[in-house]
Amino acid sequence: NSDPFMDNLLWLFPPK
């Protein structure tokens, strides 16, 4: 994803 917001969400809440 090139969306910074999405990257932040994945960094804060990584998929299990």
Q: Structural class, from secondary structure content? A: mainly alpha
Beta-strand percentage range: under 5%
What is the CA-CA span between the terminal residues? 18 Å
Helix percent band: 55-70%
Run of helices and strands: H
Oligomer state equals: single chain
User: What's the total helix number?
Assistant: 1
Strand runs, count: 0
Shape: elongated
Query: Mean pLDDT score, rounded?
Result: 83
**Which regions contain 5 or more consecutive residues with pLDDT less than 50?**
none
How much is the radius of gyration in Å?
7 Å
Major beta sheet summary: none
What can you tell me about this protein's structure?
- The protein is mainly α.
- Helices cover 56% and strands 0% of the residues.
- It is built from one helix and no strands.
- The protein has one helix spanning 4-12.
- 0% of the residues are buried.
- The model has no long low-confidence stretch (mean pLDDT 83).
